[in-house]
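Box 3.1 A note on notation
Throughout this textbook, protein chains are presented in two layers. The first layer is the amino acid sequence; the second is a token string describing backbone geometry. Keep the layers aligned when reading.
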Amino acid sequence: MSRARILIAEDKESMLRLLVRILGDAHEVVTAADGTAALARLSEERFDAVLTDIRMPGADGFAVLRAAKARAPGTEVIMLTGFASIPAAVEAIRLGAYDYIPKPFDPDDLALVVARALERKRLVEQVASLPNELADRFGFGQMVGRSAPMQEGYDLLERAAGLDVPVLLSGPAGSGKTLAARAIHAQSVRKTHPFTPVKCGALPTERIETELFGAASSSGPPGLLEQAHSGTVLLAEIDALPPAVQARLALAIEERELGRAGRDHGTRLDVRLIVASRCDLKAEVASGRFREDLFYRLNVFLVRLPALSERREDIPLLAAHFLDRHTTQNRLPARQLSADSLRVLTAYGWPGNVRELESAMARAAVVARGEAIEIGDLPAELRSAAGTTDAQRIESLSKLPYREAVREAHDRVARDYLVSLLRELSGNVTRAAARAGMERESLHRLLKRFGIRSDDFKKGD
């Protein structure tokens, strides 16, 4: 990763040297001895972030802030302020500054604020690039993703589409196995014939055999395998097939016969089989729950679809894709992800995989009040750490550097406090501010920072 370029504007030489020592190892630092010099730098060069004192001779920090944002709106500006200037720093945030740092400060805290500002800039740029990336259609069929695991998967799916052999799709629930099966069919020689998805686990056990193979009598209705003649059949949750049906399917594949006589194209089995499983079929074979002969007849071409947590770089692209789909379907104004909501989406574990992400974006599309999807528009399980144990929280913190872990723990405690306060006071912000001992506007800023909406705690809504 390239080093970020940071402009530091500070008129006190000792403070300027200290700031260079704190940030110079990790970033490319350019200095300005006062606001006027900073304005000259900003007119000629571009910076990822600007760190500026508020009170300086000549041009002050507000002038530097305005110039930086006018030159490049994506540049993050952090204000340095003495205690007496904190109200001015808060006003600077209202005007677009990322944060303010009171003097004196802890060097580690300053470095962390700068790191977070740079991360926010990266996320904002990523959000801005999403429409173009969607237009480029990173994917296969209707599948979306540009990560290495997905590129490998696309290659296998494309190869599978050019063959006419059984395909076994593996991967966790919600990873897109049905979409992959449709993509294979759409690019195969059978694409002009039916694609028939069958969820074996949803069929009543006593009717599975009849549903697949038809009634025993030739005068009865044909089964799904016969109705899909010349097309493709997806047998999802194939591990749910009873042993007797497994045996009959293995025999039908081997002999290419369905065992029913008296129809125009006989009882010949002429379908492309794609199967998917909720579990490891090889382990099911070892345990005796799945027939070995059927497994080997189906496992001709194996394609594994990764969990969403294994391809996190695809989350922004997928989220934008689903957001576009659901705003269009519901005839809503176009919306985009905010940098803060994107940060939450990429940090979440996604136990429900792509299916859960689509559900979250469908919800966000209809509940959002503005053009941008904010943290408060996301489902509750994404907005908070609710449902995680103390041990899990500590384990997640232990994976961070010390300084960042302390900041993260502080934020979690602060958020939990605010949620508890609003829950107790039924979302009354005025009473909550009084209880917390802070100004109402200060509480509003904290609620916005943590993506908490007071309306969510009001009774009777």
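The chain has four domains: 5-134, 148-304, 310-383, 388-461. The longest strand covers residues 76-81.
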